[in-house]
Design brief:
The complex is a heterodimer of chains A (about 325) and B (about 270). Chain A is α/β, with parallel strands linked by helices and about 325 residues long. In chain A, the strands form three sheets. A nine-stranded mixed beta sheet of chain A has the order 9-8-7-10-6-1-4-5-11, with helices on both faces. In chain A, strands 14-13-15-16-17 form a five-stranded parallel beta sheet. The radius of gyration of chain A is 21 Å and the shape is elongated. Chain A starts with a strand and ends with a helix. Chain B is an alpha/beta fold and about 270 residues long. Chain B has a single domain, classed as 3-Layer(aba) Sandwich (Rossmann fold), CATH 3.40.50.620. Helix content of chain B is about 25%, strand content about 30%. In chain B, the strands form two sheets. A nine-stranded mixed beta sheet of chain B has the order 9-8-7-10-6-1-4-5-11, sandwiched between helices. The chains are: A alpha/beta (about 325), B alpha/beta (about 270). The interface between A and B is large, with 92 and 89 residues. Strand 12 of chain A pairs antiparallel with strand 9 of chain B, so a sheet runs across the interface. The structure holds flavin-adenine dinucleotide and adenosine monophosphate.
Chain lengths: ~325, ~270
């Protein structure tokens, strides 16, 4: 069976859930081979094996010193050497760029924001604000596919996870843009936004940088916190929590929007959520068009009551 | 590539803009060739490209030089060119050829790289994503074709001499990325607040030069663009099943409890 390369998303050796989803999807197509960049493969390997990785390619951390291009060189080289059936990456902004450059190098095609992929590498997409479902395929070369987190249900299956060191001689072009500093803005104990099963987001309706009404509900549900651009722009919540077209795309089982009007750019980032709850004092707010359950009312009354109710019912 | 006389050197900036269907109107694919049905909705400039134009203009104001708009698209794309020129860009290049119809993101990046190959520039600025395709790969693919440093997803850009530094937004905050010009920069909407065209600039825009290029002019290989040579294919499309209408209630002092009931029914609590 041909190898299917899966670019691993990890933070210091801890594997993100999306990687288990990609390995699951890769097994439909061929034999999953995980591609690990940086330190920590030793500790992460067991989990890759648990989701069926037969092989784990380990590339040096140096690749992370430059923007995107080194990873594309790595993936293109591995794909060519192994005559891979496909390359799967998560559809994060960064990995979509990796996917694009890899496809250019391979002379193949790229499909991004995929919500499902089958054994024949036919991909499903939700486009135009979720109003249209399309299916697509790559018609040239080794398909490069970027799959959205939370799209494929991860299923365990034992793999051998045989480790293989790879060395890459980076081209000068790949070293053009150097990362000279990484700035980590506050990261709490909450689940990560793109991966969370439940997301509670606050918008302009929260009214101030006191986001405790949103955070309190999120914590009661074990959820991640998100924010609309209006809340981010007002300086109430850090930028990396923005949900929407230019923020994160989330697809949780439950999305709760507090004081968010539901502008098209916000919807672009959350409309594939399985259940949507909205609290807004304006009955005309477009977010209600999406809501499975909506409350017309003041979020500062509804959300605390909900938080308390959840506590009571636990 | 074009360092002009004088110090600091003036900058030649090319800003990429794309005409997209208005997100406020209904967007459709056409049933004959499964490409975007441009007749079905109004065209507008891709929102993020206004931020790209603004950034180019701010850089010009600081460093001197010229801002050239580059777009690839059918006749209607002239609207976006007008918009960019009336914001203050100096001139435009419009690649327009029937052979480009149906090009995918990588083919678009290839074609744009060819057009750029015959222009003098120090910096290419584009949006990080378009509202229609939403692929977000054009900037990266373009950097690959041009073999230039990729400084994408920029929330802040600083240039000093030939050194460029951006804040690249990431999952956890941002990375500081440094390179030497020429380079490719894509912007996110945090970066600035696009200006409104003044009446004076709108009038001036009508007289600004717009160069029209066919694929032959731009030396774009016809075998590498267009629907027939696309690297991806849309197999089928259909309207998404409508979401079941939700339950909307008015808060009568028990709104929170009602949501809790809904969550319990769905087994979230
Ligand atoms: C290029 C571009 C990219 C963008 N990208 C994004 C993006 O990624 N994400 C994003 O979110 N936006 C994005 N936007 C902005 C988007 O267009 C909207 O402006 C934004 O989503 C509005 O945020 P909001 O819903 O919080 O604020 P508003 O639209 O002001 O809505 C606030 C809502 O809160 C309600 N409200 C007020 N007080 C209360 C209360 N006490 N209780 C209950 N309800 C209350 C109001 O009725 C209103 O509906 C983008 C815009 C552009 C141009
Ligand atoms: N046909 C085009 N002509 C000019 N610029 C384009 C074109 N297509 C995409 N771009 C640029 O690439 C950016 C990202 O687009 P995309 O990768 O398609 O989401 C856009 O914001 C534009 O700046």
């Amino acid at each position: 069976m041909a190898e299917v390369l899966v670019l691993v998303d990890h933070v210091d050796g801890e594997i993100k859930k999306v990687t288990t989803e990609l390995l699951t999807a890769a097994r439909r197509i061929g034999e999953p081979a995980a591609v690990w960049v940086g330190e920590g493969a030793e500790s992460g390997k067991a989990r890759l094996a648990e989701f069926g990785a037969e092989k784990v390619y380990v590339a040096p951390a140096e690749l992370n010193d430059y923007v995107v291009a080194p990873k594309a060189e790595l993936l293109a080289k591995l794909a060519n050497d192994a005559s891979a059936a496909a390359i799967l990456v998560s559809a994060t902004p960064e990995n979509k760029e990796v996917a694009g450059r890899t496809a250019v190098k391979l002379g193949s095609g790229v499909l991004t924001d995929v919500v499902d992929v089958d054994a024949e590498i036919v991909t499903e997409h939700s486009v135009f604000g979720g109003s249209t479902i399309t299916h697509a395929k790559v018609t040239a070369g080794i398909p490069v596919v970027a799959v959205r987190p939370n799209s494929v249900a991860p299923e365990a299956a034992q793999g051998a996870a045989v480790e293989e060191e790879v060395s890459v001689e980076l081209s000068d072009a790949a070293k053009g843009a150097k990362v000279t500093e990484r700035v980590v803005q506050e990261k709490g104990a909450r689940p990560e936004l793109a991966e969370a099963a439940i997301v509670v987001s606050g918008g302009r309706g929260v009214g101030s940088d006191d986001f405790s009404v949103v955070e309190g509900l999120a914590d009661a549900l074990g959820a991640a916190v998100g924010a609309s651009r209006a809340a981010v722009d007002s300086g109430w919540y850090p930028n990396q929590f923005q949900v929407g077209q230019t923020g994160k795309t989330v697809s949780p089982n439950l999305y709760i929007a507090l004081g968010i009007s539901g502008a098209i750019q916000h919807r672009a980032g959350m409309q594939t959520s399985k259940n949507i709850v909205a609290v807004n004092k304006d009955p005309e707010a477009p977010i209600f068009e999406l809501a499975d359950f909506g409350v017309i009312g003041d979020l500062h009354k509804v959300a605390p009551q909900l938080t308390e109710e959840i506590g009571r019912r636990k | 590539m074009g360092v002009q006389g004088g110090w600091p050197p003036a900058m030649n900036i090319v800003v990429l803009v794309k005409q997209v269907p208005d997100t406020a109107t209904e967007r459709k694919l056409s049933s004959d060739d499964k490409t975007l049905d441009r007749a079905a909705s109004d065209g507008v400039i891709n929102e993020l490209d206004e931020y790209a134009i603004e950034e180019a203009l701010l850089l010009r104001e600081k460093h001197g030089g010229e801002v050239t708009v580059l777009t690839m698209g059918p006749d209607q794309a002239t609207d976006s060119i007008r918009k960019a020129l009336s914001m203050g860009a100096d001139k435009a290049v419009h690649v327009n050829d029937e052979a480009l119809h149906g090009s995918d993101a990588l083919q678009t990046a290839y074609a744009l790289s060819r057009a750029l190959g015959r222009m003098e520039f120090d910096l290419v600025v584009l949006g990080s994503e378009s509202t229609d395709a939403r692929t977000g790969v054009v900037g990266a693919a373009l950097a690959e074709y041009l073999e230039l440093p990729q400084l994408t997803l920029a929330g802040k850009v600083d240039i000093e001499g030939r050194a460029i530094k951006v804040q690249r937004l990431t999952d956890y905050g941002y990375d500081v990325v440094e390179a030497q010009l020429p380079a490719v920069v894509s912007v996110v909407e945090k970066i600035n607040e696009p200006r409104y065209p003044s009446f004076k600039l709108i009038m001036q825009a009508k007289k600004k030069p717009v160069e029209k290029l066919t694929i032959a002019d731009a030396e774009i290989d016809a075998a590498k663009v267009g629907l027939a040579n696309a690297t991806t294919e849309t197999v089928d499309f259909a309207p998404a099943p409508p979401r079941a209408a939700g339950t909307i209630v008015k808060d009568e002092g028990d709104g929170g409890t009602k949501v809790a009931d809904f969550l319990a029914e769905k087994k979230f609590v």
